Amino acid sequence: MNTQLGRSMLRRMLRQMLRQRAGTCGFLILSLLPVLAQANQVNLNINLATPVMEAEQSHRAFIKISLEGFKQQDKQARIPANVAIVLDKSGSMSGDKIKYAREAAIMAIKRLDERDIVSVVSYDSRVQVVVPATQVRNHQAIYNAIQNVHANGNTALFAGVSKGANELRKFLSKNKVNRVILMSDGLANVGPQSASELGELGASLAKEGISVTTIGLGLGYNEDLMTRLAGFSDGNHAFVENAEDLASVFQYEFGDVLSVVAQGVTIEIRCRNGVKPIRLLGRKSEIIGNRVTTRLNQLYSEQEKFVILEVEVPEQQAETELELVAVNVSYDNLLTQHQEKLSGQSVARFSLSRQEIKAARNDKALEAAVEQVANEFSRSAIEARDSGDLEGAKKILQDSASYLGSQAESLSSPLLQKQKEEALEDADALDSEQDWNKQRKELKARQYKRATQQTY
Amino acid sequence: MKRRTPLILAVIIALPLLLLAWFGVRFQLDQQQVAAHQLSNLVTSRLQSIDQQFQEHFFLLQQRFILRADALQQETEGRYSVDSVRRFIGQSAAVKQIFVLSESGDRLFPPQDQPLNLQEQDFVALTRNLLSAPERFTLPVLDPTASTPPQGVASQGYSGTSNDEIQSARLNNSVSQKARYSADISAPALSASAQERAAERPHGWIAWYAEAGLQQIFWLQDSEGNTVGFALNSSRLLSDLINLLPSSVVAGSDVSTEQKAEQKDEQETDSEIRLINDRGELAYSWGSGEGGQVAEAGKKPLQTLPLSHPLASWHLAYYAADMPAVITGWLGLFALLLLLAVGLSTLAYLLYREHNREMRVAEQRVNFVNQVTHELKTPLTNVRLYTEMLEQELPEDDVVAQRYLGIIGSEAGRLSRLIENVLSFSRLKRGHVRIRYQQGVVDTCIAQVVELFTPVLSTRKLQIRFTGKASHLCHFDSEIVEQILNNLLSNCEKYAADGQFVDISSWQEDSSGRLYSYIRVSDFGPGVSVDESEKLFEPFYRGSDKLTEGVSGTGIGLGLARDLARAHQGDLMVEQLSPTDVISGASFLLSLATPLTVPAMTAVPPMKAEKPDD
């Protein structure tokens, strides 16, 4: 296993050396010690699931590229947040739902202090700016305003998100965590309402560094729209069946928001030596020729985010080494407020010895790859079910389960075993027509979490 | 009379009410029209200002794109390298895709010789037709109607000169706007001259239908003749437009005073404005109050305004609830009218009741007088009867007794004439007069009256000179003739006692086959003035004070006489003496229809059988 990690750009190195920053002197040694945690520095790990491959044979290989946010040194030094809470107050929210939503929002805002900016937007057929973007100084005034939100009317989701984003823009800064938290329980029915239109908006917001977290409440919302809106900007997505659970979801979400350490992460992977990229599992990516690029909007403190790249490796002679991919990562370090770059590469060895191949296997990376592959199966199962092919969908999930089962055994991974059981349960649940709506939402949310390694 | 009073009262009530109602309604309608006009002007200007805002937004975008295009050109030295353009797309929130066409129409970006990513592939597929006609971008089409390109492409150039004003006015803003707008790379600093040069080069907006809706493209020719096109992210565009528009009111919010003020502003206009996209779908709505409910109810908008290019086929619709002010106006008018109607009606009712009561009292009095008069008749008849009998019984030589009896008789006669007058009067008023035609000679009848009056008049030193020429046998009611003559002669006795003579002449004339009898009674008293001549016949009128002083009378005599004459198909009038006449005095001419044969019908249809002793 040879993974190298270091800074690629001489300019960057020189600048950092000149500043004599702690932890930067060891950058040369670091290439040999990937596990060494570095203060205020994102960790890049590139792991090949099968670092030693059988020679004289072409392979499909999985490469896990993971990034881990550094630890926030102390709670006080966290990155200020700029959050817009967008609440659905359409007629379907009436009663307890809106009450819980209000409470959840208030509870969440309690965690903020005067470093942070908060705005609250509610929407029904129209949009109301309940709390214009404001520093969190006078908590009570904000709570009072939120308490005045009452359910009524239709669902102008697009306009709600637009206005929420507009409130964010008032204090938009690269040094803040800019996030729209959208909570909806219904289908958008005023203004644009298709997943693609909302996705476009999400993509545009992502370009500005605004991420959108979507929380679907109950069984009435459009999970495609919500996951897509979140997906473009790498926000979180959650399915909350009971309004009582909103508070905890908001807490998790704000926990995430307050632990962001890096933003605007772009990963560029170049395949070398005839290696062909096949797909990037989990996240949206752009594959042009042998170049794969993807974006992560943010990295959270001490959380690992990864992507799995599946490549095709041409056959090689035994006892040779081959550089498969070179990875360049750039991100905005919120603590130092500088853009930083990382690079690394993945090198495979080819051998004829099965022993060596087996011994070198990176179980963790493979486990992650299998998890993502199964996740892709689950996605295609939904597509099949949507197109009415119930049997096909079942078959996909069963295949996925058996694939997971065999891999779980060979890797002796309880995680995959659990995922296998889930897949089997999902296959059973496909049949029931009345539960499908809920099932689909659960599935979508679960897939989204797996793909983005969301913590809650 | 009884029916006329309520009618008049009704008219008195209705007329002013109707007039007031008419004016009120007209005034109200005028007000409404004025208000509606003002409102529509207000709404139009409001909608237009929104359109203007949108135009400014596009203009800002245009300014930015011109700068970006220049920066891009400089950065890539006019080659528009793939990576740079992609990086630019990756950073620009408002732009979905960029295309670059060379002067010869070849596509430089998305590249033709390199693999494309998914979005680029989609974009190329969508815009194949658009990009295959590069002449569309060579010159700005100033007149949008002059070219009707296929597939609904509408192109319109912004002439550089007309934009200069806005440019200079908005340029300072654009920087701050931009910073707020996106966290993109900071705008490359360009000299003002470079901006101007950029603005002079051909550029324009294209709106074209793709996928599910209108897509906007801004294109610009760079200094080397390449055409750079920026396709907007349509969702983002809508989102930005929405952010230009106000949000709705939060009920009871008290976060900041600014918000409160805004809220107050909004509440004043109870309306909703909707942004409708090219598919006729509601894209965004804002406003307050009942406007939304009006819109929900599917009513027509009060006003719509189509948006300008490149948002053509979008429009704004203004919905409003009915103006409450107008309703109160109507309410006020109706309340006023109702109040007035009630007031007038009450007044009229009170008047009517009072009037009715008085009428009843008067009627009772008249009845009472009639009754009394009637009761007087019987004893008087007895008095006269026994006076006559006594006159016959008494010896002729008892002169004194005879003279006394004569006085009793004549006074009784006078009293009975008076009673007869009163009774006839009330009969006439009730329409109970019946003419009883009997055969006779008019002169005979006159002679009887003259004979009866001779003693009375002679006591006043008046002498009757009667010349009778109405000697034809004809039909007439002798009682009526007697009564009329009685009245005329007793007037002579009362008022013309100084005249010495009373001339009575009668004659008959045949006019169109009917025989008319005329009787003229003239005296030589003070006479009747022209003014008085008609008033004399009005009931209860009694000449001038000078004349009537010290003379008793009821004032009904002449009127009664005329009414009787008219009932007899004749008339009674005062003859005006010609001014040359030296002789004063009054002259009354009585004309009567006195047919030779019995007429088929009486003058006044009998209402009920009359008692013979009336």
Q: What's the CATH class label of the largest domain in chain A?
A: Alpha Beta
Any idea what the shape of chain B is?
Answer: rod-shaped
- What is the overall number of helices of chain A? 13
Distance between the termini of chain A: 32 Å
Question: Into which percent range does the helicity of residues of chain A fall?
Answer: 25-40%
Give me the number of helical elements of chain B.
16
Task: Name the structural class of chain B.
Answer: alpha+beta
Contiguous low-pLDDT stretches of chain B (5 residues minimum) are 141-192, 252-268, 602-614
What is the name of the CATH topology of the largest domain in chain A?
Rossmann fold
Give the helix/strand class of chain A. alpha/beta
- Number of E-state strands of chain A: 17
Q: What value does the average pLDDT of chain B take?
A: 76
Q: What is the N-to-C succession of helices and strands of chain A?
A: EHHEEEEHEEHHEHEHEHEEEEEEEHHHHH
Distance between the termini of chain B: 26 Å
Oligomer: heterodimer
Average pLDDT rating of chain A: 85
Protein name (chain B): histidine kinase
Biased composition (Polar residues) (chain B): 145-163
Keywords (chain B): ATP-binding, Kinase, Membrane, Nucleotide-binding, Phosphoprotein, Transferase, Transmembrane, Transmembrane helix, Two-component regulatory system
Domain Histidine kinase (chain B): 371-596
